[in-house]
Amino acid sequence: MTSVQLSHGKTEYELHGPEAGPLVVLLHGGSIPMWTWDRQAPVLIKAGFRVLQYDMYGKGKSACPPLEHDRDLFRGQLLDLLDSLGITEPVHLVGFSFGGATAANFTAHHPEKVRSIALISPVFHFADGNSMVRIARLPAVGNMFLHFILMKKALDRASRLWSGADNAEHYTNLFRDQLRQPGFERGLLSFFRSDALDNYSTVYKKIGREGRKTILVWGSEDEDIPSSHIALIRSLMPLSKYHELPGIGHGAVFQASGQVNDLLLEHLGPA
User: 170: which of 50, 90, 199, 209 is 20 to 30 A away, CA to CA?
Assistant: First the structure.
């Protein structure tokens, strides 16, 4: 991994693949860092794409700035990263869960920088009815309560994503390591309390009007993103190609990596 100093702190990233290949940027979810893409990045690189993946602020090995961890912080981080790496051509964005919402938010604000979008189990309004967010937003929640309640819930939820996949214990250990990273708990609490997980309808509506090449992938047994939210995204982005994965939960990138990879390669086209 390589790090770069951006506006709000260090960002860990990996950039691999042929220099002449079309650039694909992989955006992980709200609590699992860039190793989310262990099963996708090598396939895309082998197909001839240049792949950029990074840890968002407060996740993985990136800095946890003492700021509100809202949607604009993460949009700005991606913009800073592209600028710092001298990337000026439009890129393909692939976002999973919160990364999907971030990809959409970035595209709505910087349409000239985006070539296509792939949304995998994307967040629409995660705060709506979610117990972890509800706990985090209680006025009296303190650090000890966060540590014993919210961190356990975060681990339990994360473990579901790779349940049944190969190397499940390996991913659980990686996530436990992240829980011990300085600032992770503080960053996660700020993330849950900010607008990062609130309603993204205006964002999806804006990019839906542009008719940009987009695919939407969702597992029929998703425990975190309800079918009603996917239906709303589809209504706001009627030109996007929709692919439903029967029997797959929220962790499609782990549980159905082969199907996801095939869909990504079809969407991206020849490198």
Answer: 50
CA-CA distance, 221 to 201, in Å (whole number)?
23
Q: Are the beta carbons of 127 and 198 closer than 8 angstroms?
A: yes
Q: Which two tokens stand for residue 264?
A: 């990504």
pLDDT tens for the 271 residues of the chain, in order: 899 999 999 999 999 999 999 999 999 999 999 999 999 999 999 999 999 999 999 999 999 999 999 999 999 999 999 999 999 999 999 999 999 999 999 999 999 999 999 999 999 999 998 887 887 887 776 566 666 777 788 889 899 999 988 999 999 999 999 988 888 988 998 999 999 999 999 999 999 999 899 999 999 999 999 999 999 999 999 999 999 999 999 999 999 999 999 999 999 999 8
DSSP state of 146: I
User: How many residues in total does the chain contain?
Assistant: 271
